[in-house]
Amino acid sequence: xxxxxxxxxxxxxxxxxxxxxxxxxxxxxxxxxxxxxxxxxxxxxxxxxxxxxxxxxxxxxxxxxxxxxxxxxxxxxxxxxxxxxxxxxxxxxxxxxxxxxxxxxxxxxxxxxxxxxxxxxxxxxxxxxxxxxxxxxxxxxxxxxxxxxxxxxxxxxxxxxxxxxxxxxxxxxxxxxxxxxxxxxxxxxxxxxxxxxxxxxxxxxxxxxxxxxxxxxxxxxxxxxxxxxxxxxxxxxxxxxxxxxxxxxxxxxxxxxxxxxxxxxxxxxxxxxxxxxxxxxxxxxxxxxxxxxxxxxxxxxxxxxxxxxxxxxxxxxxxxxxxxxxx
Length: 327
Description:
Blueprint (H helix, E strand, L loop, with lengths): L4 E6 L2 E7 L5 E3 L3 E2 L2 E6 L11 E3 L6 E2 L12 E5 L4 E2 L12 E5 L8 H7 L4 E6 L6 E4 L3 E5 L1 E6 L3 E7 L4 E7 L2 H4 L3 E2 L2 E2 L1 H5 L2 H7 L2 H13 L6 H13 L1 H14 L12 H14 L8 H15 L2 H15 L9
Parallel strand pairs: 2-5, 3-6, 5-7, 6-8, 7-9, 8-10, 10-11
Antiparallel strand pairs: 1-2, 4-5, 11-14, 12-13, 15-16, 17-18
């Protein structure tokens, strides 16, 4: 431990001053010499080749330019208690695409500040420990702890000059800035996030929109019935793209940049497509008509487990029910 970090112990807590020779994955420990690590010093990882960074959940402060020129940094695991983010934290580190975030509800949070610093498309997994809230997640099961899967689309600002009037004004492109305003103080508002879906549908690619909708349905923390139906209707209408994303998650086994877990094709069929058929959301084709195409897609993707499940499901649907007679 001592060989990996330069650190200072003050007031029964630890500040990491420098990470020595960091590799592609860096894990900052929760404790050193029995004291909690609550601060990452200025330039602590500057210029390193780190790609995945794990920070302690009780970390309170990250110093200025802590990730300066970390060009390969893609994935960050951290907590909402890091409320002091230093200036220029992500300068030269604009490649971050995934945030695994432990959110302590009711406490001051750095979530809003982090989102404002990261303007690129960002996939976020929010964990809510100790919330006492259980949710019905399709992959997770009835007793899974509260979790949300969100996507914050990219946005950028452009300076435009009105030469005759000698006025410089800012134009904002992309709907990502709207998604980053879904806060009341520092508390994230899930309903405000969901109500922006009509904007993302018309401004972002189908694949990203479908992934956003699937994430909200699989991990529906804070999701109202009205917004659940909105997401369901979109996925049912775009079922081929949804299936493509699920099959990709299978083949990458969760290691890709996407926000979906492997093993989701059965959930898509039983909880979404079959549900849509039962309540007449999708009148264009029945589930029986979709299944051959789903099997073909799984075969083309080389997903043997999905093919086997789909063929078995199709067989069950096509088999006549046996009548039982009492003698």
